[in-house]
Amino acid sequence: MARAEIGKRLHSAVWNVILDIDIRNALIFCRGCRILVFEKNLSKIDLMNEYQPKHVRLVIAITMLSAFALLLLAILAWYKLRPKGRREEDTISMPIAHESKSFPHYEEESQEEDLELPTFDLATISAATDQFALRNKIGQGGFGPVYKGELPNRLEVAVKRLSQNSGQGLREFKNEVILIAKLQHRNLVRLLGCCIQGDEKMLVYEYLANKSLDNFIFDRIKRKLLPWSIRFNIVLGIARGLLYLHQDSRLRIIHRDLKTSNILLDREMNPKISDFGIARIFGGEITEEKTRRIIGTYGYMSPEYAMSGHFSVKSDVFSFGVIVLEIISGRKNWGFYDPDHDHNLIGHTWKLWNEKRSIELVDDILDGSFSKDEVLRCIQVALLSVQQRTEERPTMSTVVFMLSNENVELPQPKEPGFVSERSAMKIDSSSSGQDFHTGNHITFTTAEGR
What's the CA gap between 196 and 199, in Å, rounded? Predict the structure, then answer.
């Protein structure tokens, strides 16, 4: 058969394969610049590039690209439409609308902000906590119960489960997601993800084996595990965590409920601030705010917040000062008792300070094993932090500086605020419409004229 005739028959066969997709009559293989064709009625023909029509190569290229594009679209469609909540961990984009009026400048930038947050399905969390078994319950707050759990990868977690009948808890859930998802600091508890499925809403945190500071510092046996070096490290760690919240993060955050039970301890006794359910964000030039819904804990609230609803970074400074005194003494501010007077821990410390006996405040369990200069410096910083007037309290940057520099001369404190429980209880007569809860955690609303 003539070479030209073979070329014509091959050309026709190629088009039959492409246009009619008659794979029974021919197969085409592309190899570089050659096309190898097998046809039922022809022996193998090696057609050189000079006999390969350009439009044939173009059609083959378009066909292959179209098939690839269809495959890619199918994969994308499957990814978008796949069932949710089936895997142990995924990622969601959670639209959160800001509710606080404390940060209008921040709201102008984003009225509704998408937060990329890892999520866990309900089955995984339920299995991790052994169906939320009572023996795994490690805490309870206004948000709801907290459970210890273990994920399939053996990672221990703490699960905060929103109480379904708690309106306050829902607000706190949204608030905590907004705040914690944006914050990263070694002295803040780390949020690992959340679970939002049906009526269930849960936050999943790193689990801290030593739980909260109050479990140690107010237990006469356990606080033997807290020598002065560890106590001082805890004080400094809390101060650095607060400094990050007030100044070093891109948001200015007021915690509003700082207390020993909200300070968690890791295996090395490093402190981590937790529970941001009632925290507030300040934006722009705003430095203080007033609320009619006062939520806090007796013994830790600043005078201006407890009596009139005013809060600022200096409110957290006051709470910090109380915590420092409790760490030094091993005694609670609220419910403090001394047979010689009716002061609380703040008033007792002030009395010792005036009598030049401040060293007597130190927990007797320490048995003299501490740095006297360090202890006296901490007491002085604490008294400065609990001053009655907000302008006389230091900022947290100043607090960290004073604690970290032994040679810095500190200012002399004046009489602090809330030196007795009676002065704190004046809230009863100065506010109306209050709803006092049992225990020392309170929530109440003050009535205001319009």
Answer: 8
Expressed in percent and rounded to 5, the helix, strand and coil fractions of the chain are 40, 25, 35
Q: What's 214-445's CATH class?
A: mainly alpha
Amino acid, single-letter form, for residue 429? S
Across the strands, what pairs with 200? Answer: 197
Residues 6+ apart with CB under 8 A from 336: 343, 344, 345, 348, 421
Beta strands in 155-285 (DSSP E): 156-161, 191-197, 200-206, 252-254, 263-265, 271-273, 280-282
Task: Place domain 89-206 in its CATH homologous superfamily.
Answer: Phosphorylase Kinase; domain 1 (3.30.200.20)
Bridge partners (DSSP) listed for residue 263: 273
User: How far from chain centre, in Å, is Cα 106?
Assistant: 19
Q: Check whether 35 has a pLDDT greater than 70.
A: no
Is residue 21 scored above 60 in pLDDT? Answer: no
358 pLDDT exceeds 90?
yes
Hey, which residues are catalytic here?
Answer: 257
Instruction: For residue 114, give both structure tokens.
Output: 């998408």
Distance CA 196, CA 122 (A): 8
Whether pLDDT at 309 is above 70 = yes
At 226, is the pLDDT very low, low, confident or very high (cuts 50, 70, 90)?
very high
Q: What is the mean pLDDT of the chain?
A: 78
Range(s) for CATH 3.30.200.20 in the chain? Answer: 89-206
End-to-end CA distance of the chain: 106
In 160-291, which ranges are continuous DSSP H helix?
Answer: 167-180, 214-217, 228-243
